[in-house]
Hints:
Strands 4, 5, 6, 7, 8 and 9 form a 6-stranded mixed beta sheet that branches. Strands 14-13-10-15-16 form a 5-stranded mixed beta sheet. By secondary structure, the protein is α/β, with parallel strands linked by helices. The longest helix has 52 residues, at 798-849. The model is unreliable at 308-316, 774-781, 790-804 and 899-923 (pLDDT under 50). 48% of the residues lie in helices and 9% in strands.
Amino acid sequence: FLDEMMRLNGRGSEGIGCQCGEVSPQFRCCDCFGVQMFCxxxxxxxxxxxxxxxVEMWNGSFFQRITLKSLGVRIQLGHNSGDKCYNPVPSxxxxxxxxxxxxIHEIALDFCGCASAQVRYKQLLRVxxxxxxxxxxxxxxxxxxxxxxxxLSFESKVSAYEFYHSLAxxxxxxxxxxxxxxxxxxxxxxxxxxxLKQLGRAGxxxxxxxxxxxxxxxxxxxxxxxxxxxxxxxxxWEEKPLFVRWKYALFVAIDAxxxxxxxxxxxDTADPSLNLGCGYFVRDSAYKxxxxxxxxxxxxxxxxxxxxxxNAADVKSSRGLAATGVGTIDCxxxxxxxxxxxxxxQKGERYxxxxxxVCSALLALTMTMINISYDIACQWHKKLWNRMESxxxxxxxxxxxxxxxxxxxxxxxxxxxxxxxxxxxxxxxRYVGRTDGEAPERGWSNINRVASSTKEMGPGTRRDTLDDHxxxxxxxxxxxxxxxxxxxIVEAVKWAREHSEALAELEKTIQPALIAxxxxxxxAWEEDNSCPNPFESRFSPVTQAAVRLELAELEAQELQxxxxxxxxxxxxxxxxxxxxxDLEDQQARLRSKFADVSLHDTDKQKATLQTQVxxxxxxxxxxARIQELYMPAVCQLRHQSSEAIERxxxxxxxxxxxxxxxxLPTETPTDQKLAGYEWDLxxxxxxxxxxxxxxxLRLRSHIYMYKDKNIRGQAxxxxxxxxxxxxxxxxxxxVLKYRRARNALLSLTSRLERCGWExxxxxxxxxxxxxxxxxxxxxxxxxxxxxLESHADNSCTENERVQDCECVRLEWxxxxxxxxxxxxxxxLLLEEMRxxxxxxxxxxxxxxGHETLRMVDSMPTQEGLTAYACRQSALRDSLTxxxxxxxxxxxxxxxxxxxxxESGEADGPTIDAPPSSxxxxxx
Length: 923
């Protein structure tokens, strides 16, 4: 191979002359087929209509580059090939530059100066060269190079700078030849090319009203599977009962991306947008005006766990940035951006920004049933309708006629409090199928690769570039719907059947009366969420606060009954144990702070730590004096310890022995009542600590995901790591608290003869302290025992059986929900497949109607308009036929007796009709 490649550097076979008979030809073309040598005359004749080919000349030793312009080739525009122009007009400066796919070429170009000649930019366009300007153009780019860059920018995310300079190196990779810089012109041509392509694909060239009449969001690629009234929904869809109408609801997902920043360079005046809100970005002027009017509004604080910490993870300040990121609203089930569903963020993920973006996107869709997924939906939705009153009137959603439900995406929901995990869960809510709400996350991996380029752009160029990338993402999703939806429905049918069988097996072990009772409770909650949530445990968890309250009330009753056994006026027996456990926790915190002390602490840090040591010492001394009243044996133990341990300095307060009942030697007698108090408090302490461990694990996972998605750079990563380290420290403290509580329970077991608690308060190994993972899906990994529900009590009583029944009830509710979600998914996918086909047919007819929508005097232009519309219509017809072919086996797949819903709407799975008829007809 190397020899053959070396051979190509020479002239090849000796003694072979030019095709015209000349013996010593000197020229060959690098772009023509083969390596045949030609004479000068033949080279000129062969390249009369191939002006951008690269030619080499043999100088006697090697081939050297030579331009066709230097050989005398001139390009004549304005006439057909072979026709002569009687009034050629040379291009200005005789140095016309054409940017082609194989380099940057300098050519000799003549425009037509005849009386019937078109203006110069049209002469260039008609040979598929795009002019850099309409006035005296001196630079053009071939349609081929623009198309190639356009696709490369989508697939490889190559920047215009990288692409242009790769062409420059393709022209001359040695740096010896001076190549005229046309980078700015190329950037301008690329931007105009993007905009013209979007206008053409939206049918604006066929509209008699012209480009200026383009409506907001009209350039966006719509999702065929989403509901569009008047396009792919039945005429009477709003009159259908709810158990049918739910399939026509719109699913959207909201999210923010802090990677898509923009530096504070240029301005809208110097760099205006060409799309002007006609694509995916909202119209910037109205958006900024709305934000300016509400710049002083304060955002209400979160009442859910983790949100403030997560917001703190957005460590990049807005200094030097015109936009810290973008907020978006996507189709939640098909991962497509919605028209007017993107807007810049100026300072984090503020409600006023997201409200405007959401309302702008939903305005064009005119849907009254909407399911909204947002990672902070539990907070964002609270005062949405109050904030709606301050929105521009054209953007206000009708609260009276709109049925909007709010959800938290399945991955994000694990970082929320328990109440949010049940009230905003896709898993437990009906009529949502297997939607996960994480659609925007899947799209960020694609668009984030352009962030390094777009952050340096001006405002208009950046918006137009991102608009174009979002449009390409949507189009790729549209063309892949046939395969993706087929894969989804095969999986949905499989899991719907399996979960249906699993529920049936479970119900065989439960009394029918209980099932009927539980079913009524679930259906009541599904109809009205103000009813008790059946997915929440009705067994009140044991907490330290609840146990302390219970012991305090018990001692108050004893005081009223005259049987009070308190030996101190201010501290009761249960109060003594409570204070002792609190002091133990304070000792642990102080030990942790001493472990973190560095060699170079400031005087202020040393003073703060010494103050804490002194304060703890005083509390310990006061508590020890009271303890001696209730536990006299402790005096002897402390005396023995002080004699046994010889030390120079006094014992540090963090190492002071508390001698609680669980810490006493076995042979030392203790008050059983005090031991019982400690048992109850330690059991609750263990459960509280375990709950804290779970909360910290969820929070850590959520912050890690946020960091990976949004944080870049050393400074940002360092600050985010500090937050993660803080969460990790709190998690480890909770682990140690749990272990202390369990060790105390083990010590008290022999004294109090308690049983049944070991199944709940199990040994906590380091390997057990791990995130739950993908618990909501059908995974194969094992889940740590800390995430498994258990309500066993600390005594062997009748209450244990009641709790066991509660566990069965919860498991039945969840099994029923899983069965229904998968069954709904089958129904929803069938409806979406029907909508896709109907939408594509509607779109094909729409393009067919555009063939003659605009009539022009020029016959060639009219023919081009008609041909373009015909091609677009034929493309939709081809997609329809392709999808129908792919889905031809779906009716047989779902017509095997699958019980989709418990409603009485139909006997089997449908696409608006039983499988045997309409399904086959539509597919």
